Amino acid sequence: MSIYEQYEIVVGLEVHAQLNTQTKIFAPDPLTFGAIPNTQVSFITLGHPGTLPVLNKAVIAKAVRMGIATHCSIQKNNQFSRKNYFYPDLPKGYQISQFDTPICYNGYVTVKVGDASRTIRINRIHLEEDAGKSIHDQNPRFSQIDLNRAGTPLIEIVTEPDLRSSEEAYQYLTEIRKLVQFLDVCDGNMEEGSLRCDANVSVRRKGVTTLGQRAEIKNMNSIRAVKKAIDYEAKRQIDILENGGTILQETRGYDMEKGTTFSQRSKEMAHDYRYFPEPDLPLVVLDETAVEQIRAAMPPLPQQLVAKYTQQLGLSEYDAQLLTESREMVAYFEALINQTTHYKSAANWLNTTIKAYLNDNNISIGQFPIAPAQIVQVIELIQQQEVSHTAAVQFLFPALLQQPETESVAHLAEQLQIVTHQDSSLMDSLIAQVLDKYPDKVRDYLYNGKKNLLGMFLGEIMREAKGKIDPKNLNQRLTEQLLARKK
Question: How many other β-carbons are positioned within 10 Å of the β-carbon of residue 315?
């Protein structure tokens, strides 16, 4: 056993999700990513004397949605507090947040790593406003401040230190990202900063129950980066301990190019944020009726859809997981199965041919040009053995991409001359043509035990047929004709 296998990794995650409301949490300022700096800031966000914050009602519903989806208890009496600290991009000198009354608490998320399921406890989900942005690399003499982001509504999702590997962290973040997108809470875009994650990482020898000294890692702009940062940081801490050193409580950044973490600032002294109740905002009271109304308006969650697709439609767990990767993918698949009962074929088309096209062209299913009704027509042609699956993929699918407005897929298949011929004369003719072309290989198949040549014959015949014969019948007919040539 290597020295690294003698240690256990302990990770807790803090995820900030930017709520996709039209305006900020306490002010009517717009929220547009990439806007000219300092053009989306009002006197309210700046905290000018005489201005008062007004809570954006939409943020409550979105936070509660996330709480319900993560099996949290919902706080009935919500108090906002002032978190006091000085930084140039915090215009009021304090941040309005929730301290001792988080809107959601004591929840959990179940993740699957390999064949094992793990329950990751959620300590709290609370609402708060974002700070602005300090820019240090645009001017050699000055730091610059962009306050457009100040006042942006956030929920912070804080786990207990329950994660035991970078892979568990990866799966947890994947699940959280999927949930915020399905619930229309956040767009989940880590590259633009609307979903951000900090990881608290410590290590301890296996069998030890007390927690080790942790380091907080920031500046990770993808789920894969979080995974790599945790792996590096755990190894760094183990190396320090094995060499007799001490882990410092500190904030560390992550260098994506080098794949390493680096020290940013010490956290030896706890911050005194001097929390106190926000005097300008009243208590937000949520009764059970309001919570149930939010629950009733929620769409099906990914795990509910996976259960539906596996138990009711007979799909595999793997196919169901792929289909529920995004809300757009689910919408497209639901449109397919509303028009056909060939559920497995619909899932196969979406998870293979269509997804390959999306990946090759770097687009989402929302930008896919072929309507679900046309894919259903393709599936029906294949099921009726009028078009082979191979011909549909190689000829019909590309033609539909070029002519997405086509109403009759069957007519397009006729134009492409790929409609399957059911008479055996064409099939027999093509088989004979290919076997006559390769007499040496026929002998090898018949007398030298090279049965793998059957696939080569099939491929040659299908190429010659250009999709005009049914491959299901071809295999049996080819085998019969080969045996007939045996002397």
Answer: 23
Residue in this structure with the two tokens 């080819």, named with its chain if needed: 478
Tell me which amino acid residue 121 is.
R
CB atoms within 10 A of CB 258: 9
Is 372 within 8 Å of 336 (Cβ atoms)?
yes
**Residue 477, token pair as written in the block:** 């007919």
Distance of CA 159 to the CA centre of its chain: 19
Cβ 323 vs Cβ 348: under 8 Å: no
Q: Looking at the domain covering 424-484, what would its CATH class be?
A: mainly alpha
Task: Dump pLDDT digits (tens) for 446-471.
Answer: 787 778 877 887 778 777 776 666 66
- Residue 399: which region, alpha, beta or left (left: phi > 0; alpha: psi -120 to 50)? alpha
Across 4-48, where does the E strand assignment appear? 7-18
Are 424 and 465 a contacting pair, CB within 8 Å? Answer: no
Give tens-digit pLDDT for 55-100: 999 999 999 999 999 999 999 999 999 999 888 899 999 999 999 9
Enumerate residues 6+ apart whose C-beta is below 8 A from 239. none
Structural domain boundaries of the chain? 3-288, 424-484
